Amino acid sequence: MAKPIKFQWSINHGIAEEMRRDPNVFVVGEDVGKPGGPFGVTRGLIDEFGPERCVDTPISEGAIVGLCCGAAAAGLRPVAEIMFMNFITLCVEEFYNQASKMRWMFGGQVKQPMVVRAMTAGGFGAGPHHSSSLEGWFASMPGMKVVMPSNPVNAKGLMKSAIRDDNPVLYVEPLSSYGMKMAIPEGEVLTPIGKAEVVQEGSDVTVVSIGRMRVEAEKAAAKLKEEGLNVELLDLLTVNPLDMESVYASVKKTNRLAIIHEAKKTMGVGAEIASAVQEEVFDWLDAPVARVAAPFTHIAFQPALEKHYLPNAEKLIAKVKELVG
Amino acid sequence: MKLSKDTKIDLYKRMIRQRTFEDETTKIFSGGEMPGFLHLSQGEDAVAAGTCAHLSNEDAIYTTHRGHGCIIAKGADLKPMMAELFGRIDGCCKGRAGSMHFADVSTGCMGSNGIVGEGMRIALGTAFAQKYNKTKNVTAVFFGEGATGTGAFHEAFNMAATLKLPLIFMCSINLYAQMTPKEDHIAIENVADRAAAYGAPGVTIDGNDVEKVYEEVAKAVKHCQSGKGPYMIECKTYRHHGHFEGDPCNYRPEGELEQWKKKDPIVLYEKKLKKEKIVSDKQIQQLRDAAQKEVDEAVTFARQSPQPDVEELYKDILA
Q1: Is A197-324 in CATH node 3.40.50.920?
Q2: Residues of chain B in Cβ contact (below 8 Å) with chain A
Q3: A197-252: pLDDT as tens digits
Q4: What architecture does CATH give domain B5-304?
Q5: Backbone angles phi, psi at B238, to 5 degrees
Q6: Would you say residue A1 has pLDDT above 70?
Q7: How much is the average pLDDT of A117-122?
Q8: Is A130 a catalytic residue?
């Protein structure tokens, strides 16, 4: 095993390996070239690959993703950075009307191999315009894929798989996990898109986590174990397409399900999972499906209010106890 | 610029092919045989013809919801185009796109767009790929003056200029943004003046003079190929039909259409070609008949093509 590296470096290494492998891969966005990215994720790429493949752009989110659409249709494989996920509101047009529809709309004449990176920043006091989790919007778009890495190993593996995918992939990275360190296995690390990871097996309750909430779910599972409850933890890793087969299999085993995600509960990905579970495996359920997610209000910059807003291990533990109580 | 006889006839053919196709769709649509919306470009024919005459299949175009003319001028086969308008399986997009969302990748038509202005942002990517792959190809993006009010215009122009992309901004001034007259939504006389804000050349020309368009696009292509970045051409022309088929056009001043029809680019060019003794009346009629025959065959092809199966709805969502 190599020495542990931080989350953002594992993304960087994933991109660099794919750029070495395929000359059609290039990086584009604000601050991605000379500045090396706002948090250093693309640092050093311009030195190895040059400004032609590591392109700094104006602050024009719509044009960045528009450029990706056109370049992908022409056979290139762009990897764009949008920075904070709230800024993606400025290019929802390009995802919703263009990238996700283009192949279908044109009768299969083109492909849209592109990766767009966006960061969620809950827990940093970054406030209403820098902290939102909007993956649910993109999870509802046919023709899109949405991946949400939760540790340095799957961050690298999902990045490499996303770059090799022939479809538009939104890659959601949690700023609060950037400091997390792990040793990355030697050789090719490719994490499959659309497949949940069974983090730990258990028999009493299934917990499905999304993105950085895996960390909170792991804490909760350890605590519950002390109290004699065995949690089966599934990290979804991808929210479009959803790996419902893995969720159903686990629910059939434990008969109870709690979902934890950082986005709002209302219209969140958890709502879709809960609904699908009651449609498909209703007879296996011994309790209603629980959701631990953000309330129907806005994320605050104010630390105490933000803490109240965000889901965490304590909230999950309380919910799981209700399910088995 | 001295144009050869062949070039002149080619320009005329590109225009008459567009016009004949669109006049036929007007008739068919009014008979209720075509689903969806139809936005037609009769009157603006010279802009597409003068531009596409310079472009190969490796050069790309992007067009608008009013895009039939551009796609035809670029060289698309009329049969799959007409079948697409009918919503049939043999359409160039398998009947999924219809009039507003056409693409014909084989001839370099990378997409029409139902979102005003959006073609400009996507065109950046094709132009980027042309530069990235070190080709001498260019991309032309067509839009109307209404689209210059979108953020897409500013973002795309600024980015194309910053990255020095081979992108030609072809603006058809047809005097209306949907139904709003130009003076009500643009505060300047010539929108090409805006190119200066991005450090790019911008020229304003008579968009009904096909040779003038051809000459100016020649300069634009050369400019793009030399790595100098984007070039904007503003073509003053007029939309003979309404915003959409069925538009009562009650916003138009009385007599305006009639005045512009006197400056119809096809009528003007026929007069010029005859005066220059490039073609005779008889030859013009032969060219018109040939276009009509091609369009008639396309209509027959479209009518005979089957409706798509419902399974088509679920294909090609992901690659």
Answers
A1: yes
A2: 60, 62, 91-97, 101, 103-105, 110-111, 113-115, 118, 120-130, 132, 139, 151-152, 155-156, 158-159, 162-163, 315-319
A3: 999 999 999 999 999 999 999 999 999 999 999 999 999 999 999 999 999 999 99
A4: 3-Layer(aba) Sandwich (3.40)
A5: -155, 145
A6: no
A7: 95
A8: yes
